[in-house]
Amino acid sequence: MNIFICEENEEQIKKTINIINKVLNQKKIEGNIKLATSSPDKLLDYINTNKTSGVYFIDIELGKSTSGIFLAKKINEIDKNALITIVTASPDKMELVFKNHISAVDYIVKDHIEGIHKRIEKCLEFIDNKLRQIEESKCLIVENNESIEKVKYEDIIYCETVKKRTIALHTHKKTIEFKGTLRDIENKLDERFIRCHKSYIANKEKILSINKKDRILFMENGSKCFVSTLLINKIISKIS
User: Fold this and answer.
1) Tell me, what DSSP letter sits at residue 217?
2) Homologous superfamily of 140-239 in CATH?
3) Of the candidates 46, 95, 97, 42, which has an alpha carbon nearest to the alpha carbon of residue 68?
């Protein structure tokens, strides 16, 4: 998970970073603090530029320029899958969260350090479990004469048309052939996949390099995917 912190008090930022890192290590949760800042604008610029999705710990009191409620609303506009936790010294402002339709995972009051640690721990465990469930649901069901298989999106390197109405799906471990067209599965896959050629769909997270001259994608498993002349610049910009 990508974690972001926006807190007015610099000392509190350090405390929150320490707590989160301890919880990640102790509970063996995969996550990184991508940005910890007192500037709402800096946070919004980052997620807008990087088009990333994440977990956010936001203070309601962020100074005179921007409130945490406004920041949370802007985050939701940019990151549709944002998981936001409000961390504040004001226990009486929870109503603002509901009034402004902020879908907060939790509302943590800054009382004593042990209490904050326990709430952040439970919050991260809940989010980790939720993200695991979401990831597990991201699978492609493929069926041929021999079997029906559920393949996780994260395991797919690329798909290609091998003959009329026959698709080959490639992972590190195996290749599965089944009846269908790339158009059939293109709408089922998520944003990590790109149609690079009439005969290829590639997982952009599995691309090692691009030969721009010959229009070839070199994939993690040593395979190659071809890129059409019309799509080469689009593919380069998406991967960049």
Assistant:
1) E
2) LytTr DNA-binding domain (2.40.50.1020)
3) 97
Q: How far apart are CA 69 and CA 90, in angstroms?
A: 13
Structure-block tokens of residue 107: 């509302």
Short-list 109, 120, 161, CA closest to 33: 120
Residue 197's DSSP bridge partners are 200
Strand, coil or helix: what is 21? Answer: helix
Q: What distance in Å separates the CA atoms of residue 10 and residue 172, rounded to the nearest whole number?
A: 45
Domain map (residue ranges) of the chain:
2-137, 140-239
- Across 85-103, b (16+ Cβ under 10 Å) vs e yields bbbbeeeebeebbeeeebe
The pLDDT tens digits for 83-130 are 999 888 777 766 776 677 677 888 888 877 778 899 999 999 999 998
CB atoms within 10 A of CB 42: 11
Residues 6 or more apart whose Cβ sits within 8 Å of residue 159:
167, 168, 169, 170, 182, 185, 200, 201
Q: Considering only the top CATH level, what class is 2-137?
A: alpha beta
Statement: the pTM of the whole predicted model exceeds 0.85? no
Percent of the chain's residues with pLDDT above 70? 95
Map residue 201 onto helix, strand or coil.
strand
